[in-house]
Amino acid sequence: MSDQVSFGYEDVAPEEKTRRVGEVFSGVAKKYDVMNDAMSAGMHRLWKDRFVRRVKPQPGEAILDMAGGTGDIAFRLAERGAEVTVADINQEMLDVGIERAMDRGIDGLVWSRQNAEALTLPDRMFDAYTIAFGIRNVTHIDHALAEAHRVLKFGGRFFCLEFSSTEWPGFKQAYDLYSHKLVPRIGKAIAGDEDSYRYLIESIRRFPPMPEFEGMIRQAGFARTKVEPIMGGLVAIHSGWKI
Predict the structure, then answer these.
(1) CA–CA separation, 15 vs 4, rounded Å?
(2) Which pLDDT tens digit goes with each residue over 65-86?
(3) What are the φ/ψ torsions at residue 83 (nearest 5 degrees)?
(4) CA angle 230-74-236, nearest 5°?
(5) Is 91 exposed, middle or buried (CB count within 10 Å of its CB: 0-12, 13-18, 19+)?
(6) Which CATH number covers residue 210?
(7) How many other C-beta atoms can be found within 10 angstroms of the C-beta atom of residue 227?
């Protein structure tokens, strides 16, 4: 089973996960941000604002926003003067982001279809690498972390916003019930896709706990790693530096 990876609660071949994750995001792309609002009661906006404040983008900095197709993080980074490359493996997600940028009159972003595990970008190109709610969908997380380290300049910083497991008593049980029972139904009602949202919830449960994922970031070569839990660890901001 060593050549198996998780797709929700299933264990599948790596190429099967890559294909099926692609199908999930192709299916939900047009309703992705509406669903984020519905599932989190708008809280994802506050989490993303907090995340970008931690990144501290500076005018003229080159930042790679990986798995950033719809532009939510990139728009926030660009507002602060950063020069942002938005990368995503899924063209449908990128198309949604490009359309949103045009509607908002946001120019200057670079849109690039990229596989996080094998970036077609030069070494030491970026001052910062961000990825929000995307790394748990990568087939080989260690490969993606190694690529993040490779494309960062020395002194560059890595920031990841991802779901985890809340440690708040009581809230954990309530959230488990909500996410497993209600989120797929919301997905069916809003996006017409129950199965994709069931997978997305299951993928959270299979993602490594905060200490384990921090260890993976260190193993990729990052130093001064840090984890900042939000809502008891329901969401966490992970960071590290290439030094």
Answers:
(1) 10
(2) 999 988 999 999 999 999 999 9
(3) -100, 105
(4) 15
(5) middle
(6) 3.40.50.150
(7) 16
**Residue 133, by phi and psi: left (phi above 0), alpha (psi -120 to 50) or beta?**
left
Number of domains comprising the chain: 1
For residues 72 and 48, the answer to whether their CB atoms sit within 8 Å is yes
Which residue segment(s) compose the domain that 80 sits in?
A: 15-241
Three-state SS string over 101-158 comes to HHHHCCCCCEEEECCCCCCCCCCCCEEEEEEECCHHHCCCHHHHHHHHHHHEEEEEEE
Q: Looking at the domain assignment, is residue 7 inside a domain?
A: no
**123-132, 135-144, 173-182: range with lowest mean pLDDT:** 173-182
Confidence of residue 129 (pLDDT cuts 50, 70, 90): very high
Between the alpha carbon of residue 11 and those of residues 4, 115, 136, 138, 140, the distances in Å are 6, 21, 14, 14, 13
Closest by CA to 202, choosing from 146, 153, 136, is 136
DSSP 182: I
